[in-house]
Write a structure and sequence with these properties.
One of its GO terms (molecular function) is porin activity. The protein is an alpha+beta fold. It is built from 12 helices and 6 strands.
C-alpha cells in the first residue's frame, strides 16, 4: 500500500519536476536574445541591407562606365570587307580595282575595343538616386519597427508564461482544497453525520479541479514554447521565465505619449519616407522632358587572324546630346501618374497619423480600464476568500450544506484565476501604450 501511494505521489510531482528543469531567462535577456536571433529581425535586416545596396547602386551611375569588347566577324560583302581592311591597316592599291571592290574575297576581323562612357547631364540619375535613398531609409525604419514588434511579441510571450504559472498555482490550490473537502465529506459519511451525496459532490468537484490543473499544465508548456519561439529558439524548444514582471508607475501623460508616437513610430516615419520617394518619382518623370548629355571615348584594335591581336589600332572620342521631342504623350501621362501616386501617398500618410493618435489614446483608456478591473479582481478575491472561510466554518458546524460549500469554493477559484488574468492584462496594457507610441524597447531596455 505504501509503495502504491509513493508511486502516485511521484506521478503527481513529475510534471512539476519536468517543468522546473526548463532553462530560464529574465525579461531583458529574452529581449536581447530575440533582437539577435529572431528570424523576423534577421529578415528585416537583410531587407534593409538590400535597400542600402540599391541606393549605392544608384550613386554609381554618376561614375564612368568602362567596357571591354571582343568581337569576331567574317564577310565577303564589299562594304564590310572594305572597312575591315581599313581598320586592320591592310588596305592596298590593288584593293581599288573595280573587280576587287565589287566582288572581294571573304575576310575575317577580330575587333578589340575599350570604351568609356561618362554622363555629363542626366536629371534622371539624380532623381533615381534620391528614390533609392528614400527607399533605403524607409527600409531602415521598417527594420527598427520590426525590432519593436518582435520585442513586444517577446513581452507578450513572457507575460503568457507568467500568467500560465499563476493560473496553474491557483488550480493546484483548488485541487488541494477540493481534496480537503472530499476528506471531510468522507469522514463525516463514515461517522454517519454526512450524506453520501455530499461525498459524491465533493469527488466530482475534485475531478473538475484536477481537469483544470491538467489544462493549466498544458497551457504553461505551450506558453514556454511560445516564449522560446519568440526569442529565436528552435521548434519544440521551451523556455521558462526567471522572474516575474512587476507593474511600474506610468510616467507620461496622454498628450506627451501622442507626441512621442507621432515622432517615434517607425511605420509612420517609413510612410513619410514613402511620400518623399513618391515626390522624387515625380521629379524622375519630369526629367524625361529634358535632354541628356554623355561623353564617350574608345580605343580600338583590329586583327585579321587572332583575338586581342594588333594589326592596327585607333581611338575615338565625342559627346552625345539626346533630346526626345515627342514620344506620343507618354511623358505627360507618366508625370500625371507620378503626381497622383504622390498625392495618394500623402493622403494615406495623413490618415495614418490620425490612426496612430487614436491607437495611443485607446491604449491609454484600455490601461485605465485594466487598472480598474484589476482593483475589482483584488476586492473580489478578498470577498471570495472571506466567504469561503465563513461557509467552511458553517459547514464544519453543520450549519451549511455541501452545495453551499462547493459554490463558495467555485467562487474562490474563479476569483483566483480572474486576479491572475487581470494582473497580466494590466501589465500588457501598459506595454501596449509604449508599443503604440513606438518607444517599447526604449522603455523596456533603457
Amino acid at each position: 500500500m505504501k509503495s502504491i501511494a509513493a508511486a502516485f505521489l511521484m506521478l503527481l510531482c513529475a510534471p512539476a519536476l519536468l517543468l522546473g528543469a526548463e532553462p530560464s531567462v529574465s525579461l531583458k535577456e529574452a529581449l536581447a536574445r530575440a533582437l539577435e536571433r529572431n528570424h523576423l529581425v534577421s529578415g528585416a535586416a537583410y531587407e534593409k541591407e538590400a535597400a542600402e545596396e540599391g541606393a549605392a547602386a544608384g550613386r554609381s551611375r554618376y561614375l564612368p562606365r568602362i567596357v571591354l569588347d571582343e568581337a569576331f566577324s567574317a564577310s565577303d560583302l564589299p562594304t564590310r570587307v572594305f572597312m575591315m581592311k581599313l581598320d586592320q591597316g591592310r588596305f592596298t592599291q590593288n584593293d581599288f580595282q573595280i573587280g576587287n571592290l565589287n566582288t572581294p574575297s571573304s575576310t575575317t576581323d577580330f575587333r578589340t575595343a575599350l570604351t568609356l562612357e561618362q554622363p555629363l547631364f542626366d536629371l534622371g540619375i539624380g532623381y533615381g538616386r534620391e528614390m533609392a535613398q528614400r527607399e533605403a531609409e524607409r527600409m531602415g525604419y521598417r527594420f527598427e519597427g520590426r525590432r519593436e514588434d518582435v520585442g513586444f511579441a517577446v513581452y507578450v510571450a513572457y507575460l503568457g508564461v507568467q500568467r500560465a504559472k499563476s493560473v496553474l498555482a491557483a488550480a493546484e490550490k483548488d485541487v488541494e482544497e477540493a481534496r480537503e473537502h472530499l476528506r471531510v465529506a468522507t469522514v463525516r459519511g463514515r461517522e454517519g453525520t454526512g450524506l453520501k451525496s455530499d461525498e459524491l459532490r465533493a469527488r466530482t468537484f475534485l475531478s473538475e479541479a484536477e481537469e483544470r490543473t491538467i489544462t493549466a499544465l498544458n497551457d504553461l508548456k505551450l506558453a514556454r514554447m511560445r516564449l522560446a519561439l519568440a526569442v529565436g529558439g528552435e521548434a519544440g524548444e521551451s523556455l521558462d521565465i526567471r522572474e516575474d514582471v512587476t507593474g511600474e508607475a506610468f510616467r507620461l501623460n496622454e498628450e506627451d505619449i501622442v507626441r512621442e508616437a507621432l515622432a517615434n513610430r517607425r511605420d509612420l516615419k517609413g510612410a513619410e519616407k514613402g511620400v518623399e520617394r513618391a515626390e522624387a518619382a515625380v521629379g524622375l518623370a519630369r526629367s524625361a522632358w529634358y535632354p541628356t548629355l554623355y561623353a564617350a571615348a574608345s580605343v580600338q584594335m583590329n586583327d585579321r587572324d587572332v583575338p586581342f591581336g594588333h594589326d592596327n589600332d585607333g581611338w575615338s572620342a565625342g559627346v552625345n546630346l539626346r533630346w526626345e521631342l515627342f514620344d506620343g504623350l507618354g511623358r505627360m501621362h507618366g508625370t500625371a501618374r507620378a503626381r497622383a501616386e504622390r498625392d495618394a501617398a500623402a493622403q494615406y500618410l495623413e490618415q495614418f497619423r490620425k490612426e496612430v493618435d487614436l491607437q495611443v489614446r485607446e491604449s491609454i483608456l484600455r490601461r485605465a480600464e485594466a487598472g480598474k478591473r484589476l482593483e475589482v479582481a483584488r476586492h473580489a478575491l478578498l470577498a471570495a476568500e472571506e466567504g469561503s472561510r465563513l461557509v467552511s466554518k458553517r459547514f464544519a458546524n453543520g450549519l451549511a450544506t455541501m452545495v453551499e460549500l462547493l459554490d463558495a469554493q467555485s467562487a474562490l477559484s474563479r476569483a483566483r484565476t480572474g486576479l491572475a488574468e487581470r494582473e497580466a492584462d494590466h501589465l500588457l496594457a501598459t506595454a501596449r501604450i509604449y508599443h503604440a507610441a513606438g518607444i517599447f524597447l526604449k522603455e523596456m531596455i533603457p
